[in-house]
């Protein structure tokens, strides 16, 4: 069984800051594997261990996704090999474009039985890439997956459990599918030093977008950010609280001066 895990190497929004003009400053945001992707990796590893399958890492993005640190962070989590689409043309790529590139990479890998993804990406959180990816491949998509096993790996039969309101739904899927893992589907294993050292020896295939058969998209999405006219810069005014009554009076005076009350 050939299992692909699509993960995202992305900056953590918790490290970003937003200016008064609405612009987001990502300069201090550290990149890493997207928050929920390790859950998908764990589900893939369990499926591979049960079926004797191969787990392949797949990611797409600008050249930074192919950095040594990014490679080791992914491969140390138990992948057998990786396929990385590293192309600066994908900087800021939207859902449709990214899903199209991932789908082309899955076709390039060939004979893939299942693609597993995280619930959502840490930087965008739209929960749309798994569904659009499935549409690009012409495969079924299943969200909120809590467990997956190979009922009959030789026949390509997957047994999938997913969380629904009030219980659990069990599906049997014949043929390839895209599965989006629930955020609490599994507790990911933490890579040890041996895993990190072994990661550097695992095979990696690096591609650029022109090397893949990516269909042209006729959709253009333009994103703009504007400042709220009523949003004022913080003054950072400090109030001495040694005398609570005086502090309260000073606070009220400051709020009235700014028109807040």
Task: Give the SSE layout.
Elements: E1 2-6, E2 9-11, E3 17-18, E4 24-25, E5 31-33, H1 37-51, E6 54-61, H2 68-75, E7 81-86, H3 95-109, E8 114-117, H4 129-137, E9 141-152, E10 157-164, E11 167-174, E12 177-181, H5 193-199, E13 204-207, H6 244-257
Parallel strand pairs: 1-6, 1-8, 6-7, 7-13, 8-12, 9-12
Antiparallel strand pairs: 2-5, 3-4, 9-10, 10-11
Instruction: Report helical residue fraction.
Output: 25-40%
Q: CATH topology of the largest domain, what is it called?
A: Rossmann fold
Question: Can you count the helices?
Answer: 6
Dominant shape: elongated
Give the oligomeric state of the chains in this entry, treating copies of one chain as homo and distinct chains as hetero: single chain
- Counting helices, strands and paired strands, the structural category is alpha/beta
Radius of gyration: 23 Å
Tell me what you see in this structure:
With 261 residues, the protein is of the alpha/beta class. The chain has 2 domains: 2-211, HUPs (Rossmann fold), CATH 3.40.50; 231-261. The protein is built from 6 helices and 13 strands. The longest helix has 15 residues, at 37-51.
Quick recap:
The chain is α/β, with parallel strands linked by helices.
Features:
261 residues; two-stranded antiparallel ribbon
